[in-house]
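We emphasize that the prediction below concerns an isolated chain of 150 residues; any contacts that depend on oligomerization or on bound cofactors are therefore not represented. The input was used exactly as deposited, without trimming of termini.
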Amino acid sequence: MARKFYGKQTFTATVNGNNYVINCYTQDTNYGFRHVAFLDNPDRYYETQLAKACYYNRTWESFRYETVLKSAIEKLPKADQEGLYNILIKKTAQEEHERCEKEFQAFEALFNKTSDTFKQAVDNSNLIMNSDEDVSMVKSLMALDIVFNS
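Result of the prediction step, given as a token string:
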């Protein structure tokens, strides 16, 4: 049974005059999910699959598609691999780290504005945020607390 691809993210880089466009997708499987990387061939009307990485429930990557992107880079010309790694892996990981740092600072600033009652409720709970949706929900609750207690 064919499964749909979703969550497309495109990574582009030019190394030694060669332009690379790598499209990464997520695909559900019977046992979990996988990330798949394709090399985009603009002169042709198809993509060439370079790599895939399978997971049972979650990944521990610095950024989404990190593992499959590293595997894809290893299949490209040796002369371009180091440049691609520096541009696509190191740069993307740094950008993701900076984005997360800004989000955390904004979250912390919002939390610091909440009432003591709200802070105590959070301290007394076993609050665990596993997803962006969880974070959004808590941010909404903090915003409501600030509005109602101002």
